[in-house]
UniProtKB/TrEMBL annotation:
Protein name listed in UniProt: Carboxypeptidase C (Cathepsin A)
InterPro entries, per database record: AB_hydrolase_fold, Peptidase_S10
Native source species: Sphingobacterium paludis
GO biological process: proteolysis
Keywords of the record: Carboxypeptidase, Glycoprotein, Hydrolase, Protease, Signal
């Protein structure tokens, strides 16, 4: 059931209607009513598709940020109703990924492993977390329908690690105030570069907006500004290589028959205790020791010993994506190595294209355009930017991982959950673990940090079994971290 309730445009910069110009209204809302069944419960919810301005210090409108806001209708007590604030990554990527394939009330039409099928479109999401939390999906500037509207505005105010965090924190203050959510338990979830964004936002919201969170969820996290150059960077890739080779049944029989988690635990220990020191030693390692490491790495990666040796143990991810299935005439995907691609030539050191991304765009782009136009009644000639122009992007002074740690230290309520796919070769699961170790070297915060892994890739939720498990992990995380009434936020007795 869908019913349009209201369409209000508060400020439209002179355009006569939503079709007249390819400029979005800077302050608008379209509200529709819907129904969904989640975990056996049938309930109605309200969807609000709108835009909200970004102002400068003098109150001048510089840009508009578009959002989708979903609230369960039978909830009256907002003080106990969690609010999940959702960002995707890029930078320059819209919120469509998690909105239409993970936590939201609608799912795009794909098969159970995540591959596109026709007819394109959407269906009800019985695994949505809308049963336990309201959700707002935010499209940073130049993604989705969000745009800079002042041609003279300094792009440096938006397009950089810290600039992005600052203006979005200010924007969220306004959003939370307008929707009367200050007393609600609040959560941030980010995917890919969105994990950089929400890690920085956790501290910025505390320090600049005085807004405190209950939880942060990092889906397929980036390096969060935590350095890992040289030997460390090269070594941490090994467990991912093993996982991808295991999936494609390229390992020798003794390893291939192993349970994946058990095998990866072994490879992780080897990485830290043997492989990392071997790379760090460089030419000082003995010929015998080096040959032994080459042999073992070749076994764990299913690559030829010559490939491992010729690259001095430092195998790039691009080479691995090209090399693993070269004899079969395929490349493997970057963000999800379950996907296969076909290159013009079998020769070369990197794939011609990202096999997984073209598959995803195949399904997501028609679905999101259909969804906004037909279900959310958001009719506009502004193009929905699945990926938008945000470059050059200033990546300097990225301390977001340590900022998240500082936010947790300063807020005893704040918890962290990390979700990673074993077959993600862009932001691999072992690097996600490394983030947590380096964010909290003392281990004092470890009781408030959790890690979840899945047998899929960057968007683990595209695989149905992992969608079911990952949404349940979010549900349990929220329920665990929504603190009882009158429990003080303090350390010690």
């Amino acid at each position: 059931m869908k019913q349009t309730i209201i369409f209000s445009i508060l400020l439209f910069l002179g355009a006569t209607n939503a079709y007249a110009q390819r400029i979005p209204p800077v302050d608008s809302a379209i509200i529709t009513k819907h129904q969904i069944t989640v975990k056996g419960q049938r309930f109605t919810y309200t969807a609000k598709a709108g835009t909200q301005p970004v102002w400068d210090a003098a109150g001048k409108v510089l840009a508009t940020v578009q959002y989708s806001y979903y609230t369960r209708d039978d909830v009256r007590d907002l003080a106990h109703r969690p609010l999940l604030i959702s960002f995707n990554g890029g930078p320059g990527s819209a919120s469509v990924w998690m909105e239409l394939a993970y936590t939201g009330p609608r799912l795009l039409n794909i098969d159970e492993e995540g591959y596109p099928v026709q007819p394109y479109g959407i269906k009800e999401n019985p695994y949505s977390i809308l049963d336990v939390a309201d959700i707002v999906y935010v499209n940073p500037i130049n993604t989705g329908y969000s745009r800079v509207v002042d041609e003279k505005a300094d792009r440096g105010l938006f397009f950089g690690t810290n600039a992005d965090i600052r203006y979005l924190a200010e924007w969220l203050n306004t959003f939370v105030t307008r929707h009367n959510r200050w007393t609600s338990p609040k959560y941030l979830i980010g995917e890919s570069y969105g994990t950089t964004r929400v890690s920085g936002l956790a501290l910025e919201l505390q320090n600049a907006q005085w807004m405190y969170l209950n939880g942060v969820m990092l889906v397929s996290p980036t390096d969060l500004g935590i350095k890992r150059d040289g030997a460390m960077d090269a070594a941490l890739r090994l467990p991912y290589f093993t996982a991808a080779a295991w999936y494609h049944k390229k390992l020798d029989a003794q390893l291939q028959q192993r349970d994946l988690e058990s095998l990866l635990a072994e490879v992780e220990q080897y990485t830290l205790n043997v492989f990392l020191p071997a790379i760090a030693r460089g030419s000082s390692i003995s010929t015998t020791e080096r040959e032994k490491v080459v042999q073992q790495v070749a076994s764990y990666t299913a690559l030829a010993k010559e490939v491992v040796s010729q690259n001095n143990l430092d195998i790039s991810t691009a080479l691995f994506w090209k090399e693993l299935m070269r004899k079969e005439g395929y490349t493997i995907g970057r963000l999800d190595s379950r996907y296969l691609g076909i290159d013009l030539r079998d020769a070369g050191e990197r794939p011609d294209y990202n096999a997984e991304l073209t598959s995803w765009l195949h399904a997501f782009t028609p679905a999101v355009n259909y969804y906004f136009w037909n279900e959310l009644n958001y009719k506009t000639d502004v193009k929905y930017n699945v990926f938008g122009p945000v470059h050059p992007w200033d990546r300097s002074n990225d301390n977001t991982g340590l900022n998240l740690r500082q936010a947790m230290a300063a807020n005893p309520y704040l918890h962290l959950m990390v979700q990673s796919g074993y077959f993600d070769g862009a932001t691999d699961y072992f690097n996600a673990k490394y983030n947590m170790w380096q964010m909290d070297p003392s281990g004092r915060l470890s009781s408030r940090m959790s890690f979840k892994a899945y047998k899929s890739g960057h968007m683990m939720y595209l695989r149905k079994d992992d969608l079911i498990q990952a949404t349940e992990d979010i549900r349990q995380f929220i329920q665990k971290t929504t603190v009882p009434d009158n429990q003080p936020a303090k350390y010690g007795k």
